[in-house]
Specification:
Length: 199
């Protein structure tokens, strides 16, 4: 930067923090930041007052201007790379138009690569597909042929394991009659059974 440009930078700083600027200040600052680009220095002053409350010094201008220059160069390099890729893509053509050597190399690479785990690469997609399959199977399922709609819910006494009052199995004589009926139906009732005499 030239001394008038450094004076302009100091004027921008003075407009914000009310500092006094003289010829000696311009010469001193020219020694410190004279090698910087004027636009970078001006943007550095603006950025400093937007992001910091510290009193502006040459080190602040140099640090921010260096960062701005680095960012600009990275952006320019990225744009150059993109232009080179676009230019190559415009003239390269499809894979079938390339030499047999390249096609052979691509084939070797393709056969040499292991099979990828689809669930590891796309876990959400695989999980959604699994849920979708389950839903489709359930939506298209045939009704249960053994289902009887007339059958009601389990009675409360069955669920609670407490028999109702007056149940037949609470009467010993009724239990005996029921057991004999079941044994007779099964053909296992012995009619010739005699009670054992007490010794």
């Amino acid at each position: 930067m030239t001394p008038p440009q450094v004076a302009a930078i100091l004027a921008l700083a003075a407009a914000r923090d009310r500092r006094t600027v003289g010829e000696v200040d311009v010469r001193a600052w020219h020694e410190d930041i004279g090698d910087l680009d004027f636009d970078d220095a001006r943007n550095a002053v603006s950025r400093h007052f937007r992001e910091s409350t510290e009193y502006l010094m040459p080190v602040h201008v140099r640090r921010i201007a260096t960062e701005l220059r680095r960012q600009r160069r990275e952006l320019e390099a990225e744009q150059e790379r993109r232009k080179a890729i676009e230019a190559y893509a415009a003239t390269a053509g499809p894979l079938t138009d390339r030499s047999a050597e390249i096609q052979e190399f691509v084939g070797k690479v393709r056969t040499g690569l292991p099979e990828g785990d689809r669930e590891a690469l796309m876990p959400r997609t695989v999980a959604w597909e699994r849920e979708h399959r389950h839903h489709q199977r359930q939506a298209g399922a045939e009704p249960n042929p053994d289902y009887d709609a007339s059958m009601g819910p389990v009675p409360e006494w069955c669920a609670s394991k407490a028999p109702p009052a007056g149940a037949w199995w609470e009467d010993p004589a009724a239990r005996e009659r029921h057991a004999q009926t079941l044994l007779a139906e099964a053909g296992r009732l012995r009619r010739d059974h005699k009670p054992r005499e007490a010794a």
